[in-house]
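Researcher: Next sequence.
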Amino acid sequence: MNQYETVVVLTPVLSDDDVKRTLEGYKELLKNNGAEMVHEELWGLKQLAYPIKKKTTGIYFVMEYKASGEAVAKMEVQFNRDEQVLRYLTIRLDKFSVDYNERKRRGEIGKNRKPAEATENA
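Model: Next structure:
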């Protein structure tokens, strides 16, 4: 099984409950096809770089998971059928990307980097 990261941009007209229901459906689809969720993060409403279907904002969601290629293909078919999905991008992570994501979640790198003194004293 490979490790993948998918970014999904949903239409901004959805309510919070609709967003949660939609995203839970996609996570269940992956789990039913043998995937293991590693990390998920809802970025919320963001400005788009260019209009998509006359929308200038979108709700971003990022999920990282381990799955087979078949599970990813099934999920992407569902993305194409769903009118609530404006765009999506799935990439297969190599060992360097996996390491980077793990370090970023621990706060060693990135915007939310913890000061070096705080990590040494802990």
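Model: The chain has a mean pLDDT of 91. The two ends are 35 Å apart (CA to CA).
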